[in-house]
Amino acid sequence: MRDHDPTRTVSTSGATEAHMRRAVIADAAAVQELTCKAYAKWVPLIGREPMPMRADHVATLREHLVDLLYVEGQLAALIEMIPAADHLLIENVAVLPALQGRGLGRRLMAHAEALAVSLGLREMRLYTNKKFASNLELYRRLGYRVDCEEPFMGGTTVYISKLVGQSAQMSAMGEPA
User: What CATH class is the domain 9-172?
Assistant: First the structure.
């Protein structure tokens, strides 16, 4: 198994440099603030706070992997991941509203996929609200497929997944994964 370095510097669009690091408990307030800012736009659409806004971020940082993406020294985005025996679950992707649409979400998803491969996992999974159409479109463009939909709190949760690593290559060649 290869080590995946969550503290590496990554190039973002244009000449801007970004730095990623693993979050620690002391980051809980910053994670909460960023998550609330990123998800605030969805409150009027679904009539309630999305679940990541309600999360206990101290518990999240104890139990899950959360990687923080800094752009020009500012916390710009984060991704929360939960490794399981056979997949990596993406629990939360949050990007500051002023920086949305600049490829940071795609970079975080690529980062998570690389982590999954480094952990020997074959599949990525995540779920989102069906009304978050722009998010679903991004995930579709990244190669995710809808597995199922379920009612949740007056709306619909869409569960999606994607094969990664060798499984993705085998699937692309028409071989069973």
Answer: alpha beta
